[in-house]
Specification:
Structural class: alpha/beta
Shape: globular
Strand order of the largest sheet: 3-2-4-1-5-6-7
Order of helices and strands: EHEEHHHEHHEHEHHHEH
Number of strands: 7
Distance between the termini: 11 Å
Largest sheet: 7 strands, parallel
CATH superfamily: P-loop containing nucleotide triphosphate hydrolases
Bound molecules: guanosine-5'-triphosphate, magnesium ion
Radius of gyration: 19 Å
CATH class: Alpha Beta
Number of domains: 1
CATH topology: Rossmann fold
Number of helices: 11
CATH architecture: 3-Layer(aba) Sandwich
Strand content: 5-15%
Length: 255
């Protein structure tokens, strides 16, 4: 069994992408289990096979600990790791080829506290990887692009699993996705765009953002994005091939 964790900023399209992967793999003859790991999820575009909300109830957390919605979400996120044994057992009983985890919208609660990294590291499976969504609407300017790339690097540090960077919601972005694609594959083009945005190369904003991007590149972080749309399903073949390469050493025949 291989595990795929779908991560990204709030609203970046994690749940929609999760909803697409299950039928995609079913078509290829592979079995999947979809796990909702977001205790605060209100409605989901798929029926989870395993649901953390069966183990952690936000409203009871609010009542029992006299917390407001934000405090309850933090508390509930911290509880995710404590439910690992039950979730592992439920997934193991279903014995799928792939388990897909839809992670909480508040990425900082999942990745920067102890619970999320503990869960990713300790869920027992053959291989694991993390999909990270660069929301096309958030990376429309060079500085925003650098900020999200930095967040992706930080997720890599925290979750310690191979990462697949995806440019999500391509269909919503007009032509803006082309710029993000260029910046992701051509550092000089990104530095030029940063210099134009900041009206030169002497200001602190330029120096900081261009240094970040150079250091990320020097450290081997390669953010060549896969453009993806959950509406048109463009990018699913590239995503699936990348998942196969990371999880199965390239073998794409399922089942
Ligand atoms: N047009 C378009 N809309 C999308 C796409 N992906 C997601 N959406 C929409 O964007 C909104 C947020 O998508 P979700 O899949 O719920 O995003 P999420 O990252 O799971 O959100 P949270 O869990 O709340 O952080 C929903 O209205 C989706 O229908 C896409 O590729 N194209
Ligand atoms: Mg979601």
């Amino acid at each position: 069994m291989h595990a795929i964790f779908v991560t990204g900023t709030a609203g970046s399209g994690k749940s929609r992408l999760t909803s697409i992967l299950k039928p995609w793999y079913a078509d290829k003859g592979a079995t999947t289990v979809v796990v909702n790991l977001d205790p605060g999820a209100f409605s989901l575009p798929y029926a989870p096979d395993v649901d953390v909300r069966d183990h952690i109830d936000i409203e009871s957390v609010m009542e029992s600990y006299q917390l407001g919605p934000n405090g309850a979400l933090i508390f509930a996120s911290d509880m995710i790791a404590t439910r690992l044994p039950q979730i592992q057992e439920q997934v193991d009983d279903l014995n799928p080829d792939y388990v897909i985890f839809d992670t909480p919208g508040q990425v900082e609660l999942f990745a920067y506290r102890q619970s999320g990294p503990y869960f990713v590291e300790n869920f027992t499976c053959d291989n694991r990887c993390v999909i990270f969504l660069f929301d096309a609407s958030l990376v429309a300017t060079p500085t925003n692009y650098v900020s999200i790339a930095l967040l992706a690097a930080s997720m890599q540090l925290r979750l310690k699993a191979p990462q697949i960077p995806i440019l999500s919601k391509k269909d919503l972005s007009g032509d803006a996705w082309k710029k993000a694609m260029k910046w992701s594959s051509n550092r000089a083009a990104l530095e030029d765009a940063l210099a134009k945005e900041k009206s030169g190369t002497s200001g602190i904003d330029y120096i900081l953002s261009s240094s970040i991007i150079r250091d990320l590149s020097r450290s081997g972080f390669n953010y060549e994005l896969i453009p993806f749309s959950s509406v048109t399903q463009e990018g699913i073949i590239e995503l699936s091939a990348t998942l196969a390469r990371i999880l199965r050493g390239g073998e794409e025949i399922e089942g």
